[in-house]
Amino acid sequence: MPLDQVVALFVPNSNFLNVVLVKSLDLYKPGTINREVEVVENIVINPNIICWSEKKIQHRIIVGEYFEFVTRFGLEDRDPVYTQSLKFSDCISFNLKLHEINLELLMRQTLKVDIMDLRINLVANKPFSLHCSNCATELIQMRTYRIIDPLPMYTKRVPRDFWDSLELRNISYSEQIYYGLNQIVMSANHIQFDTKMIYCRKRRRVLCPGCPRVLGTFLPRAVCLHADALRIGTRASPAARLEFNELFGHITPTQLMLRLMQDTEMSRMFLKCVRPDGQMHYMLLVPEMKKIQFLLSKPSLFSKIDMKPLDFMDADTSSESDDSSDSSNESCSSSTDEDSPNSIDNPGSTPIPSPIKSMDHARRPNTTRKSIEHVFLTPYNGYNVKYIFASTDSELCDLKDTIHDWRDNNVRSLRISYAMMIELVSELNANEHIAAALGNLAPPCRSLEPRSSHIIFESDEEFYDTQQQLDVVQVP
Q: Are the beta carbons of 309 and 23 closer than 8 angstroms?
């Protein structure tokens, strides 16, 4: 079974490249590796290529553009590469010490991702009505607005003097709508006198007249409405049936994190959302402010084809790199070598480390020609993050002291939509398995202690392409 993906983390301070060979990206189908079987024979290292072999396939992971590996630590040729191999249920992790780094090229070719415009379904000069997302009560009758624009800054909270700072004096405030991340900003006079929303003076909140749903909050001259608490109603024709839709389209975890991290003061993020049934979800998120470099291959997701755990002893690994004389000259020439005594100690790690052979490990001859697949890695920016997610009443209660602590330190909560929260949680949950492998840590478990994960900034096109492939995977 081929690899699903190769993930590498460049750690400049330690001068190491941490590499993870992912056998299965499908978290519903772990156990694709037999942990009782040694995998060292399948990994071969030369100065600029990593070879992974199994059965009739050899993956040649090309990193020569950016790195050159140390393949000898001693003065004698028989001293092997200094690294380690750790087996998890769905991936294999090892570290490689770097001899040379082309940092300029690495930074230049790192994928740059900018903040994209939000996908919004409100269109200027096109009639629509606004309804409560919980009970469908009509809050604003069908009408048009002349201006529907994004907020003038990538803000997460609308300034109290926002409405006063607008210079569009020739247009009525009731004809203007501004939007941000899960926010719709409208004139306070328009909401109070032209709509059916209820203004709660005691807490400066806007309520739905048909149910107790909180729709937003009042500012001095504006109202900031929660977009996820509303639905837009449109008609294809005056006689057509009213169609409901969400105000915003989908936003990827990358775009969500880019917007959240625009505010340098938000080194700690207190995110909350309301599930459609009214259950509150909280997330406490602390991103490290120092960028790190990830190198990723394009996911192939072949693992959905084979449901059986892989037994490497049946993979004929005795001569994985001896495809032919010409291919071995390209990346995997062989000579005699000994096992390495220099495995890295990793106290507290559940997997058992074992040394990886260098390219010169002796192998038995094999006449079987293997299919060679070249794997190229693309550099991405990213951040390590620690987070706590609470989704039940008992978890929220257990988190109460921590939340009070954060609020005492002026960390205000930010409401996002349930869809945004689920996307972010799913991304962090998936990435924390890779983060554990990259850090040679035990597999993660759900707890109210901060969990370690990472966010990799990828383009929307790559995100949706991967999701499309994942949707094909059949969950047993």
A: no
3-state secondary structure of 387: strand
What's the rounded Cα separation, in Å, for the pair 199 and 26?
A: 47
Q: How far is CA 114 from the centre of its chain?
A: 16
Share of the chain above pLDDT 90, in %: 30
* Chain Cα centroid distance, residue 363: 40
Share in percent of the chain as helix, strand, coil (round to 5): 20, 30, 50
132 plus 238 within the same structural domain:
yes
Cβ neighbours for 75, distance < 8 A, ≥ 6 positions apart: none
Q: Are residues 327 and 385 in the same domain?
A: no
Q: Containing domain of residue 385, as a range?
A: 253-291+380-472
Task: Check if the beta carbon of residue 437 is closer than 8 Å to that of residue 349.
Answer: no
Q: Would 123 be classed as within a structural domain?
A: no
Which residues 6+ apart lie within 8 Å of 36 measured at CB?
none
Helix (H, G, I), strand (E, B) or coil at 77: coil
Considering the chain, what is the average pLDDT of its residues? Answer: 77
Sequence-ordered strand ranges (E) for 279-333? 280-287, 292-296
Asked if residue 118 is part of any domain, the answer here is no
Say if residue 236 is in the same domain as residue 147: yes
Write down the pTM of the prediction: 0.79
253-260 and 460-472 are packed helices; what angle lies between their axes, rounded to 10 degrees? 140
Are 343 and 403 members of one domain? Answer: no
